[in-house]
Structure formats: C-alpha cells, structure tokens
Amino acid sequence: MRAMRLLLSFFVLFSLAFYAASASAEDGGKTCRVLYVEGGPFGNYQQTLAWTARGLEHLGLIDNGQVEIPKNTESAREMWLWLADHAKGQIRFLRDGFYSAQWDADARDIIKNVIKERVRTRGDVDMIIAMGTWSGLDMVEEDLGIPVFSMSVTDAVNAGIVLSSEDSGRDNVHAQLDPGRYKKQITLFQEIFHFKKLGVPFEDTPDGRKTAAMDEIEETAAELGIELVKRSAALDLPNAEKAFANLKGCIEELARGSDAIYLTYTSTPMHRIPELMAPVIAARLPSFAQAGPDLVEHGVLMSLSQVDFRDIGMFQAESIAAVLGGRKAREVDQIFEPELGLTINLRTAMRIGWDPPLEILAAVDTIYPKSPLGQK
C-alpha cells in the first residue's frame, strides 16, 4: 500500500506540473468547475469536503482550502459557499453548484434530473463530487461525459456505484473504497462482548440495504455464527419526524430481543441520538455505531472508524489531481484503507454496567467521558 501511495504521489506531482502548463496555455489558465451533490446533511460529508479542500491546497490546485467545519449543524452548504468565494486557483467551486436532497426521495429525483440537464445543456460543469450512496448512484446512472468522484459511501461496490475495488467499470467514475471495513467492526464488537443476537435496524429496500451495507453485515454474521435480529422500517422519508419515529420503533423492538445493537448509518440529527439510544441503555445493551465517533460522542457505546479524515482528504485530492493531469477516473486507484481507531463513551459504559478491561482501554484512541444523554 505504501509503495502504491508513493507511486501515486509521484504521478500526481508530475501531473500537476503538466496540468498547470496546459492550463496556462489554453484559455489563459482554464479552471475546472466543480459541482457538489449529497443525499442530505451528514457530518462525515463535512469532514470529507474539508479535508479534501486542504489536500487540494497542499497540492497547489487551490489557493485556500482552510474551510471551517460549522458547529451545531451537519450541513455542508456554508462550507461550499466559502470555498466558492475563497478557494480560487485551478479548481472553481461553483457557487450555484451545491445540491442537497435533505434526505427527501422526491427531492432526490428532481435534483438528479436538474444536474443531468445542466451538464448536458449548459456545459458549465467539468467535475462532480457526489457525497454518499444516493448521489453516487444517481450521478453514475449514465455517462455524463465528466469525471464523477463518489465520496463517503458505505460500500460503493455492493451499492452498484462501481464494478469492483479494482475497476470502477466506467471511464469517468472513481470511488474511495475500504474493503471489509464493516466486517472489521462487527468482528471486534463480537470479540469484546461475545453476543449471540445482534440487532440491526435498516430500511429493507434496495437503496436502504446498500446504505447500511447489509450484504457485508449478513455475510459477517454468518461467518461468526451470529444471529441477526433485523428490524426494517421506512427511514428515507420527507417527514423527518416520521422517519425518526420509525427508527426509534425499530430500536425499541431490538432492545427487547437482542444481546447487542449495531446502529447502521442514519440521517438522524446528532442532538436526537441520545433519545434514540435511551431504550438500548435502559436494557443495558452494548451498542456500536457503523458511521463513526460522532454518534459515540452522543451516546452510542463504541465505534471503530478512521482516526481522522486527513488521510482520506489527501487521497481524494490526489485522485482529483491525477484526473486533472490527464488520467481517466477509472485508471486511478480506488482502494484506500485509513488508519482505524476505537472510540468509547465511558458514560454510556457506566450506564449499561460495563467496566472496560484495561486491555480495551489501552487500545482506545478516543474517549468521550460525557454524553448529552439525560442532561438538561
């Protein structure tokens, strides 16, 4: 892996020099105009965008990538507008190029068609950043003739965004892949708690299964001899309150019939995670967040995820640079396995009566001693 990264870095530096020379020669320094689309607000999207921008600055493709991640919101809109106004350089973040479906399936279809029409008729977009499974699927339905970078996706292969880890299957498509991530999560969780029944909430639709990486969850459970207790409900709804009520209903049922809970990706706002996890804590069950440490901070017991987004952002920036340097998106390596760290909420541990062994605490990268749960 290190050798591949070094090789990619060498190619990137060569490509940047070539691209800069070409850009200066043509149209007085033509910029690459970039559009952003997401299924809805999500903290991981903010982190990925921020660190990709910093990576692009490091590579000299933009002048300023030091965009702040806003507090008390998971929206990336303000970040995108800031980049549109301040990034400058060889990449232009289109100010009118931010699209979010707000986790509304109807809005998703509208946005998909609006973007496709814009690319075909206006011709003012040179590249697309598609955050999440929804956007990745929508932007690769057909070849729009411009590069599409699918970022922050649960499982781009099983979702159908790319053909395989080694080949996206489309000349204009690239996705970052971390094969086996969720197998690692569930295996570690089971090694710690030795549960026999694992509760998993999800939406049993094609898109819902892809978002939750259910194929990998089911395969892993079968290998480990774990019984999956699955509860499905409509979660991708225009009515956020209804979606939350449905998910909470799943969690309440699972808390009564499982030994542990694996919380799959959710668009639930962070301030409502404590309410969501209350039945799990009341049942004194261990819980694991598929999405990462933000949910642990707000009451989920633990997660195994990337330590930070710095390396992922640099990987995305180098991939973009390689394409700007003349390579097809399909030709750029898609596999990047970030350093993973264990995160634990000790307050939740105390509330469920779990005293983490010293060997577990020694392996923890991040500890949250407090959570908003129960605070007034």
Question: Can you put this structure into words, describing what you see?
Answer:
By secondary structure, this protein is of the alpha/beta class. The protein folds into two domains: 2-178 and 308-331, Rossmann fold; 181-305 and 339-368, Rossmann fold (3-Layer(aba) Sandwich). It is built from 15 helices and twelve strands. The model is unreliable at 1-28 and 371-376 (pLDDT under 50).
User: Span between N and C termini?
Assistant: 48 Å
Structural class: alpha/beta
Number of domains: 2
What's the overall average pLDDT, rounded? Answer: 90
CATH topology of the largest domain: Rossmann fold
CATH class of the largest domain: Alpha Beta
Q: Sheet bearing the most strands, described?
A: 5 strands, parallel
Global Rg: 21 Å
**Share in β-strands:** 15-25%
Q: What level of helicity do the residues show?
A: 40-55%
H/E element sequence:
HEHHEHEHEHEHEHHEHEHEHEHEHHE
Low-confidence segments, given as residue ranges, are: 1-28, 371-376
CATH superfamily of the largest domain: Response regulator
The helix count comes to 15
Total count of strands: 12
Summarize the structure.
By secondary structure, this protein is α/β, with parallel strands linked by helices. It has helices spanning 2-25, 43-58, 77-86, 105-122, 132-139, 156-159, 181-193, 206-212, 214-224, 240-257, 273-282, 293-297, 310-324, 346-351, 358-363; strands spanning 32-38, 91-100, 127-131, 148-151, 173-175, 197-202, 227-232, 260-263, 287-289, 302-306, 340-345, 364-368. The termini are far apart.
